[in-house]
Amino acid sequence: MTELVTTRLRLRPPELADFPAWARLASDARVLEEGEAPPDEAGAWKTFLGVAGSWRLLGFGVFAVFERDTGAFVGRVGPHRPHGWPAGEIGWVIDPAFQSRGYALEAAQASADWVFETLGWDRAIHTIRPTNTASQRIAVRLGAVNLGPIALPPPFENIPNDEWSLSRDAWVSRRSA
User: Fold this and answer.
1) For residues 135 and 121, what is the distance between their CA atoms, to the nearest angstrom?
2) With bands split at pLDDT 50, 70 and 90, how would you rate the model's confidence at 12?
3) Taking residues 163-170, what's their average pLDDT?
4) For the chain, what is the radius of gyration of the CA atoms?
5) Which strands form 162-167's sheet, in the order they lie side by side?
6) Residues 141-155: pLDDT tens digits?
7) DSSP conformational letter for 110
8) Burial of 83 (0-12, 13-18, 19+ CB in 10 A)
């Protein structure tokens, strides 16, 4: 089983016991983008199973993230590539109770190390809404560059997102500096 350990966090594929915390986070209005409806329990279950299937079929997926010291569920961070996506993405959603502690950046850095070193990706993207300045700051700290508006496949085609791109070369250079 893939597990990433950072100074303060533990990232691993989600397990069945994680579903209640995962579903709570998915329906928390504080982490939803403007205009985004919270999923019902069945919708959260479908997404959760999709992540588990990604791990099984593709060998990667979004990680469930926990504090190392307490074992508390912090959020979900990591690589995914939904059907029709233009490239592999590293995304992050952190429970509001754990925001402003640098956890999203710490987990995203571990994920970037893993996708570039282990999975061999040449680049990763972050799809970020133009109004989501908190995620934009994380992307900048990762070294990603905003390439402007991105066209996403249905059902996301009418949601404005910018493509932030992070190349393996830029990542490796940044990490070794």
Assistant:
1) 22
2) very high
3) 96
4) 15
5) 4-5, 9-12, 63-67, 73-80, 89-94, 123-128, 162-167, 145-149
6) 999 999 999 999 988
7) H
8) exposed
